[in-house]
Write a structure and sequence with these properties.
The complex is a heterodimer of chains A (134) and B (278).
Chain A: H1 6-25, E1 47-55, E2 58-62, H2 69-77, H3 81-97, E3 104-114, E4 121-132
Antiparallel strand pairs in A: 1-2, 1-3, 3-4
Helix pairs in contact in A: 2-3
Chain B: H1 2-17, H2 26-38, H3 40-43, H4 46-62, H5 69-84, H6 90-116, H7 124-132, H8 137-144, H9 148-158, H10 177-202, H11 208-225, H12 229-240, H13 248-266, H14 269-277
Helix pairs in contact in B: 1-2, 1-12, 2-4, 4-5, 5-6, 5-12, 6-10, 6-12, 7-10, 8-10, 8-14, 10-11, 11-12, 11-13, 12-13
The chains are: A alpha+beta (134), B mainly alpha (278).
């Protein structure tokens, strides 16, 4: 009946993995199964992703289209290369579908920090990722 | 054994109250939840709960890392039920696993708030959240004494400028003393209560009444304000699994708080109260 300890073992393993992901890869503490919700202001409402598309004769900041919102949410929550690549490739594919040139997609993930006393908000870059469109 | 049935049925109800997951998971979970409710034979089948746990795990993986923490807890809980139903002493196995799961989840929650987070104990989390999160606006107005105009002005003042820019003379944030006091009480109150629940759960079978009192108090207070009823339901079902079947009144209290959390989530009580006193 050692199997009866499987749920608690899983909880501990996932929680330890979540702390590692937060510390090493900037996962928001609210996500990942580590029970860090309602513990910090570092969550989706205070993270955002800027998208800039470059091509010969073009450099343009884009609004995130609804079709890519899930990819944006995932990349903002955990700004690691594979999630950022997926988002950037989605942006490039959409641009090409719409007949617009795209050679490079630059993603900047921002996190809002609040002053300890005055609460004034400042955006700080968490990660900048450049995707050269193949 | 009737109490075990109630635990399993309430877990199935929690599944049905908050349908989750993509198209290939949601109907499966809804069907399994319905099956558990209409058939006692299926309710007691280990395989049904193993399937529930697997479906929730697929839901977590599908949009990882976006799933909320109580979805993980529900997956562990469904797995715990599946394993317990294979044991001869299902009720005792489930009660023990429930204590560990709640205790460990609360240890993690306390660690994040008190040790790992840079902005919780200094009260920034609640000060900013009460001003900016629309889900807490009415509570902030009701308890904190903010006006609608204050909320709008504070939200504008707390919005960051693009690309890390800062104003030389930034606007002052309106924080009435009552709101600051509410943020302070919320900060320290939740850390104290979560620490108490964690300690009592991990203390084993000692202090059972205190353990139940702490968990019930936590759920009754927290989920009146926090908009995550699903978390409250999972915790309450897990707490009920630890109740001695002889303590009928305690089991009924758990069911009553389960229903209270349902009402908290469906009735906009802060808004109604705010309208009534205006």
């Amino acid at each position: 009946m050692r199997m009866r300890f499987l749920p608690t073992t899983l909880l501990i393993a996932v929680a330890i993995g979540q702390v590692v992901l937060v510390r090493a890869f900037d996962l928001t503490p609210w996500k990942g199964g580590g029970f860090g919700m309602f513990a910090t202001l570092d969550h989706a409402a205070f993270r955002r992703v800027d998208v800039v598309v470059d091509a010969p004769g073009r450099s343009e900041a884009l609004e995130v289209p609804p079709s890519l919102e899930l990819d944006v949410a995932r990349a903002a929550s955990l700004p690691v290369p594979w999630l950022l690549t997926k988002l950037a490739a989605g942006v490039a594919a959409r641009e090409r579908r719409n007949g617009r040139a795209v050679a490079r997609v630059t993603l900047t993930v921002w996190r809002t920090a609040f002053d300890r006393i005055t609460l004034h908000a400042t955006d700080r870059p968490l990660r900048t990722f450049v995707y050269n469109v193949p | 054994m009737a109490q075990l049935d109630t635990v399993l049925r309430l877990t199935a109800i929690a599944l049905l109250l908050r349908p989750m997951g993509p198209w290939f998971v949601q109907p499966v979970l809804l069907a399994l939840g319905a099956l558990a409710l209409i058939s006692r034979r299926w309710l007691r089948r280990s395989g049904l709960w193993a399937a529930v746990s697997l479906a929730i795990a697929i839901r977590i993986a599908d949009d990882w890392p976006l799933a909320d923490n109580h979805i993980y807890l529900l997956a562990y809980w469904a797995l715990a039920i599946a394993l317990a139903l294979r044991a001869e002493d299902a009720t005792e196995v489930l009660a023990a696993t429930s204590r560990w799961l709640i205790g460990l989840a609360f240890v993690c929650a306390v660690l994040w708030k008190a040790v790992l987070s840079p902005d919780f104990l200094d009260q920034r989390f609640f000060r900013v959240t009460l001003l900016t999160d629309p889900r807490f606006t009415e509570v902030a107005m009701l308890i904190g004494g903010l006006s609608g105009a204050d909320v709008a002005a504070d939200r504008a003042a707390l919005a960051p400028l693009p690309h890390g820019a800062e104003l030389i003379d930034p606007p002052v944030i309106v924080e009435p003393p009552r709101l600051k006091a509410f943020a302070a009480v919320s900060t320290w109150g939740i850390v104290a209560l979560e620490t108490l629940v964690a300690a009592l759960m991990l203390a084993g079978s000692r202090a059972a009444h205190l353990r139940h009192a702490a968990l019930l108090l936590f759920c009754a207070v927290t989920y009146a304000i926090a908009p995550v009823a699903g978390f409250g339901w999972v915790l309450l079902v897990m707490g009920l699994a630890q109740v001695d079947p002889a303590h009928v009144w305690l089991a009924r209290t758990y069911v009553a708080v389960f229903l209270a959390v349902l009402f908290y989530s469906e009735v906009p009580w802060p808004g109604l109260l705010l309208d009534a006193i205006r």
